[in-house]
């Protein structure tokens, strides 16, 4: 199957993918730019018979992506999972952190607090087939807090050291 997307008198370079289930081919078409949104015609034809085509009229809509949280607060070394939903079928979602030293995110949306501070986690809807363009994105502001444990006059920070208050010495490192 070959196709052309035409808006007005111009060919439109859209993001696309297709899925074949053995009997039917499903074509997913997503506009890349704002001027591609709206009514367009798709001409579908075979390689052997380009003059024998079918035309369908479609309403191309801008792709959207939504993230499960717009903000989150976690303790140091804790983790949580973000999820993203998109209006564009069969497109890839990439996850990035504005500061991986504060909050890391993996390719599945799992976020881990690495150091106290604030980072922005971004989910991007990408068109990977040709030019890796970002079609839409959503963000979550993550605040990582220090995690201190205290019992009486003994305070510890996981993975660091313990402090105990001693009247004669002031502060003693254990």
Write the layout of secondary structure elements.
Blueprint: E1 2-7, E2 10-11, E3 15-20, E4 25-30, E5 38-45, E6 54-60, E7 65-67, E8 71-75, E9 79-81, E10 84-86, E11 92-97, E12 103-105, E13 110-113, E14 117-127, E15 133-145, E16 149-151, E17 154-156, E18 162-166, E19 170-173
Q: Please give the number of β-strands.
A: 19
Which regions are unreliable across 5 or more consecutive residues at pLDDT < 50?
165-174
Q: Quick one: overall form?
A: elongated
N-to-C order of helices and strands: EEEEEEEEEEEEEEEEEEE
| Strand line-up in the sheet with most strands | 2-1-5-6
Main beta-sheet annotation: 4 strands, antiparallel
- Quickly count the helices: 0
Structural class label:
mainly beta
Termini gap:
71 Å
Mean pLDDT: 78
Describe this structure in words.
This protein has 174 residues and is mainly beta. The chain is built from no helices and 19 strands. The strands form six sheets. Strands 2-1-5-6 form a four-stranded antiparallel beta sheet, with no helix packed on it. It has a four-stranded mixed beta sheet with strand order 8-15-14-11, with no helix packed on it. A four-stranded antiparallel beta sheet has the order 16-17-18-19, with no helix packed on it. Strand 16 and strand 17 (154-156) form a beta hairpin. The model is unreliable at 165-174 (pLDDT under 50).
């Amino acid at each position: 199957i070959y196709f052309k997307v035409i808006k007005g008198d111009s060919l439109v370079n859209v993001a696309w993918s297709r899925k074949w289930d053995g009997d039917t081919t499903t074509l997913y078409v997503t506009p890349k730019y704002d001027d591609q949104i709206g009514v367009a015609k798709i001409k579908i034809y075979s390689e052997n018979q380009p003059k024998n085509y079918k035309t369908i009229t479609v309403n191309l809509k801008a792709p959207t992506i939504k993230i499960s949280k717009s903000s989150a607060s976690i303790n140091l070394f804790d983790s949580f999972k973000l999820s993203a939903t998109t209006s564009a079928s069969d497109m890839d979602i990439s996850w990035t952190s504005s500061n991986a030293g504060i909050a890391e995110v993996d390719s599945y949306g799992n976020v881990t607090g690495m150091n106290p501070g604030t980072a922005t986690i971004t989910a991007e809807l990408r068109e990977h087939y040709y030019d890796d363009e970002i079609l839409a994105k959503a963000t979550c502001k993550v605040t990582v807090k220090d995690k201190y444990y205290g019992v009486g006059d003994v305070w510890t920070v996981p993975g660091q050291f313990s402090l105990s208050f001693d009247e004669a010495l002031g502060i003693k490192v254990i």
